[in-house]
Design goal:
alpha/beta, 294 residues, TIM Barrel, 15% strand, Methylenetetrahydrofolate reductase, oxidoreductase, Mehydrof_redctse-like, 11 helices
Length: 294
């Protein structure tokens, strides 16, 4: 590192450390499908719970069986940890009456936060009967849930263009969404430009950056290909030759994510949503650098 780069890094770290205001984090998990994965999940939740996240979200795929597993995890989080738990809910595999009943059941169970998504289509040629904005409206009609929705700084893969995608987010906000959480990204400028564009069209909720600490680069490339996320060339160089070196991959992933959150923090971001992949180590380390500690 040359002298100029060192001074720039020192200036960034000083800027972050001097920022005032409450810093918030939230974490995403997925329901386990094996005893080993269940142990990993609950160890991770136990490790991250002392950081007092705003909420923790739990994903699910299509099908009522997966939804039941999500609900089980949600109920245990609420019962055993006291954390605010937010189940993901999609509208592609349930009709309106079923969704209303699911929402009522969640509310009666003490769930007040939901991540409302359209969900992945099992048949991409079939037009969905409901969209995320419709689901947000339905949930708000049932009870006054705190609702998070998805946002796409690099445009949703199915959107015909970026403006169409942006206006779709606006519809979700106008339907009652309380915040938007972005797809993971690595191009910080794309997030900052997206945040500005949201303001320009009247979107007045916070746009929470989704942070994915990368421990497996091959898995990332597969995810990115499905989600229209740009993986910069410099990341290929940083992970080159580390296919059989998970310890170094973790260090690289933590370093990249730490740099991202420091820069975003210096740009005024005060809430980060971490895609933990049910593992706590990298997320915990990154939160520590932000000053979020038990």
């Amino acid at each position: 590192m040359n002298y100029r780069s060192a001074r720039q890094l020192d200036s960034l770290n000083r800027t972050v450390s001097e920022l005032t205001g409450e810093l918030q984090v939230s974490f995403e998990f997925f329901p386990p499908n094996s005893p080993e994965m269940e142990t990993t999940l609950w160890n991770s939740i136990e490790r991250l719970a002392p950081l007092k996240p705003n909420f923790v979200s739990v994903t699910y795929g299509a099908g009522s069986g997966t939804r039941d597993r999500t609900h089980d995890v949600i109920k245990r989080i609420q019962k055993d940890t006291g954390l605010i738990a937010a189940p993901h809910l999609t509208c592609i595999d349930a009709n309106r009456e079923e969704l209303v009943q699911i929402a009522k059941d969640y509310w009666q169970s003490g769930v007040r936060n939901i991540v409302a998504l359209r969900g992945d289509l099992p048949d991409s040629d079939k037009k969905p009967e409901m969209y995320a904005s419709d689901l947000v409206s339905l949930l708000k009609d049932v009870e006054d849930f705190d609702i998070s929705v998805a946002a796409y700084p690099e445009t949703h893969p199915e959107a015909p263009n970026a403006q169409f995608d942006l206006l779709n987010l606006k519809r979700k906000v106008e339907a009652g969404a309380n915040r938007a959480i972005t797809q993971f990204f690595f191009d910080i400028d794309s997030y900052l430009r997206y945040r500005d564009r949201c303001v320009s069209v009247g979107i007045d909720v916070e746009i929470v950056p989704g942070i994915l600490p990368v421990s497996n680069f091959n898995t990332l490339k597969r995810f990115a290909g499905l989600t229209n996320v740009n993986v910069p060339n410099w990341m290929y160089s940083m992970y080159e030759g580390l296919e059989d070196d998970p310890a170094t991959r973790n260090l690289v992933g933590a370093s990249i994510a730490m740099d991202m959150v420091k820069i975003l923090r210096s740009e005024g971001v005060d809430h980060f949503h971490f895609y933990t992949l049910n593992r706590s180590e990298l997320t915990y380390a990154i939160c520590h650098t932000l000053g979020i500690r038990p």
